Fold this protein.
Amino acid sequence: MALIHQDDFIQSIADSLQFISYYHPLDFIQALNTAYQKEQSPAAKDAMAQILINSRLCAEGHRPICQDTGIVTVFLKIGMEVQWAADMSVTDMVNEGVRRAYNHPDNILRASILKDPAGKRINTQDNTPAVVHMEVVMGNTVDIEIAAKGGGSEAKAKFVMLNPSDSIVDWVLKTVPTMGAGWCPPGILGIGIGGTAEKAMLLAKQACMGSIDIQELIARGPTNALEELRLELYDKVNALGIGAQGLGGLTTVLDIKINDYPTHAANKPVAIIPNCAATRHVHFILDGSGPAVFKTPRLEDWPTIVWDAGITARRVNLDTVTSAEVATWKPGETLLLSGTMLTGRDAAHKRIVDMLERGESLPKSVDFTNKFIYYVGPVDPVRDEVVGPAGPTTATRMDKFTETMLAKTGLLGMIGKAERGQEAIDAIKKHQAIYLMAVGGAAYLVSKAIRKARIIAFEDLGMEAIHEFVVEDMPVTVAVDSQGLSIHQIAPKIWQSKIGKIPVVEV
């Protein structure tokens, strides 16, 4: 019989979340470095380099890999012989551990969880509650899998109820391109097959927490149908040419992980949940001997990569840039931004657009005339930081606001993560604006380019408040030019054709 003490359990949850906030699993680093070494697409290779450098910086500085520090998901297997020395429920203990982790003064983690999701959407301030799944099993230990799942990758989750005779491969290959690059590839695709609708989704989520071992599987060969399916999907998904950050390239997924479960004869439920470049999960077991201990990885296990923007990178002064200059920028071009920009995410955009539609003036501190807006919700700074990790958020969520922002604020351009939808592309072309892409999964590296930061409006929105950033040599890629040409529409087709395993389908 194991006696699990409340304080040990809470401390283990808190320590695990701090640990995974700044340490990538080493299997991910090794797999990404392998992909980086073989990548032939310059844009994708550059994105991978930034992700790998960011990962090492976070491991050294104990700061979050991504500004989106995730929604906490916990899978608990509680042994039937376990006893608890506790006056809190298991779920309450998990949430107390989350609360302590996200408010840790040495490494504050961004609070992203909102209560009243269909109504006022009010931030809970401490990233609680977690999503907790519990199972009672034989044994005398508590087995814990815990993840901090980013909202960008979670937003790309897909589910289908196929007919029994339908092809899983065909559905996956049709579905993955519709997910865009907002899930920050390269990463892992977790796939759940069978059970019921909700079971398939849980299977997919748990699959995301598996170790990357596809190269070992390739080397030894498959021994069952699921392993054959993994290999086929790994090969064919990468042949889509989507590449790192959707910029076109050889590697879109580092692994395909699949869990299955018996299902009804009339059904074939299939779920996909991607894990992004900020893969954060850990597994540990409590046996009553004290809190979990997490082994610190060696910095030598990270590759040493020196990032260079290249001699063709164009330096841009954001304080003097003009529409005429913007019109010369081409898709795929690397820019180094210096000067002043404003920030804004979903909540700020909605408030701005609502104010404009009511005929109200924006706060005097907010002037977008000939400025760029950066789609970001940064982590709070600690110690001598100007700002915490501040990587881009998924740009498509701002698509519906883009026409109004460009038409009524004097905005010159936007910076975000991944592709833009056609609605935004049309607005960009109409107003001769520009969309620039920063690398998702390189948040701490991006923050190093921010020299000054201050909140200038909507402070009540927390991490979604409008900030003013002064940046120096912030690296970005031209993603949609002033003529509406999108790198995310062009590059994957080019690389799919180069790889040559899947016919290019014109949309």
Remarks:
- Residues 152-277 form a domain with the 60s Ribosomal Protein L30; Chain: A; fold (CATH 3.30.1330).
- The chain has a mean pLDDT of 95.
- The two ends are 61 Å apart (CA to CA).
